[in-house]
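Entry type: protein chain
Record version: 2
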Amino acid sequence: MIRTSVKITAIVMALILCAGGLAFAAKAKKAEKEMDVGAMLMASFEMMEKGKFEPAQKLLDKVLAKDPGNPLALNNMAAIMVKQKKFDKADTYLNQALPRAKGYMVQINRVCQVGGICVAFKPAAGGTGNQELEPLVKMNIDMVKQYMSSEPLSGKGLR
């Protein structure tokens, strides 16, 4: 009887340790994913500042593959679309970013002007940004819509 209770206790302890290890591994994997995304966001922003929009776009595509709906990646992707004069796509990206932008912090003292209308923002290290992203995305949406409405249609003049 004592042997059976010792075996049961040993099995229960092993299961508890395994569960704890799995939870720790999942938490470490999540932190690794977030760190990768953060590093890629930072690198893509720095590329945009240097005018290297194609490699920045590739990095942002990777961020969105790992973290679909990342509001900063979507906002900064919209800035690249503005540079490429793809205003409809820029508007789409910004509207996808808006619902998740509330509470997402960025460094507003570092912005990247693209095409004079849409700005990309620097990611905040460790959530210590000085500005919430939501009003900035709204501002970008307004600028893109205003620019789209003033763009002439081919052979039609101003809209």
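Comment: The first strand starts at residue 105 and ends at 114.
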